[in-house]
Automatic annotation (TrEMBL):
This is FAD dependent oxidoreductase. Belongs to the DadA oxidoreductase family. One of its GO terms (cellular component) is cytoplasm. Its cofactor is FAD. Keywords: Flavoprotein, Oxidoreductase. Transmembrane segments: none annotated. It comes from Nonomuraea solani. Residues 228-254 have a biased composition (Low complexity).
Amino acid sequence: MRVVVIGSGIVGAGAAYYLSGRGAEVTVVDGGYQGAATQAGAGIVCPWVDHPEDAAWYRLTSEGARHYPALVEELGEDIGYAKVGALLVAEDPADLEPVRGLLRRRHADAPEMGDITDVPTPSELFPPLSDTLSAILVPGAARVDGCSVRDALLRAAIAKGAQVRTGTATLTPDGDVLVHATPPPSAQGRAASSSSAQNLATSGRGTESAAVSGETTSWRQATPLDVGAPDTAPLDAGAPDAAPHDVGPPDAAASSPAELTSDLGTPTRPEAAANGSGPDRDGSVRGETNGGVRVEADMVIVAAGAWTGEVCRPLGVELPVFPRRGQILHATLEGVDTAWWPIVLPRVGPYLLGFPDSRVVVGATVEDVGFAPRVTMAGLDEVIEAGLRVAPGLANATVAETRVGLRPVYAPGPALIGPLTDRVVVATGLSAYGLTAGPFTGRIAATLALGETPPIDITPYAPSRP
Ligand SMILES: Cc1cc2nc3c(=O)[nH]c(=O)nc-3n(C[C@H](O)[C@H](O)[C@H](O)COP(=O)(O)OP(=O)(O)OC[C@H]3O[C@@H](n4cnc5c(N)ncnc54)[C@H](O)[C@@H]3O)c2cc1C
């Protein structure tokens, strides 16, 4: 069976990995869009503190987290995964009680979270932290490097025969895949559709006060606190005529999957094929159509992140998928071993996590501003100001890097996974939880493309058929 996967973020790479392991002939297509979420993701894997009243979300994220240790072993390479634990911190210890209760209730079905303990002096575990904080530790929480996971999944898929192509994929109304060297003009409409999807999302969710009550909502802040208020980049919000560079042309970022794949020997770039230089090694490219090169497929998996709605539009569906921007900062503390520092999760505001190489990641903004993958002064200010409030000991850290990504949000529900037509499977909408649930979601998509029964009931994530 020939399967084309559109998008090589963590979900698409996961799908390619599980498909190629099952003997499918796999072609992955990625346009290297600016703002792809996977390259910006922080790497927190701690599902048990969130979605107290959303069984579908919790099922997906907790299964995703449970899936990781086996995946790490299978891949057999360093993907930055380590069970470093998570410190839930609060100024007022009373604020920790609802989440403590939630963890107690969930422990029986998720013993992998470990035994929750009080931490009287959190700065002993994460030295830059403020002395005024109270904390509890969730020892089973892990951190992971999203780029490394994606790259390792792709590498393993390629080793089993998958092909990876650089280019922008479009679908025909019948679900055929065309690959273009540059984004097609229709790509410029994405921001317009994002704003209506975003309206749907905000009208269907709780208010700011509910979001911070601590009783019934996630511990981590995954929706904007200022719902309906002007955002930090108002000019970009829902702008229907966003310039092409705002909506995702190929990206030259060092960590882009396009670069990885050329490092690994991309067989044929679409422009070469379009110039008449012949078929791919696997013979799957049959000719040009509307400026694109057709890639034959029995099944297509659309894992195009925040751009999934645009990709699927030719099928006659309007998927309410929109981008939720996150700006994030990487700092270094020279000479300090930060590799085993726990993740720090305040009730509201920025999280912090340590990685090897003396690196501390502080993030992230949560902004509904359309397809505008930019690092802004206000965004950085928000992250730095709130980060220093929680961890004043970072004041002298070196700002090493800033990143920005567009979390793919499916407005009506937890995530969007399932068959869209007889030939097209969609897998996206993982929002702030894609590094946790991405590989597992890719596995679900792979089973669906192969016509097999997915590992969990996917009814809550199913798209409505066009
Ligand atoms: C700042 C930030 C922090 C985060 N932190 C965490 C965290 O701590 N824990 C966690 O679990 N999750 C986290 N997330 C969420 C997580 O990163 C995302 O949910 C996840 O990466 C989404 O992966 P994806 O594969 O669906 O999308 P993406 O990574 O966006 O990949 C989509 C891919 O599709 C390609 N594409 C799009 N359209 C086309 C087309 N037409 N043709 C070809 N290619 C196309 C793009 O180039 C891109 O590579 C964070 C996200 C952000 C932004």
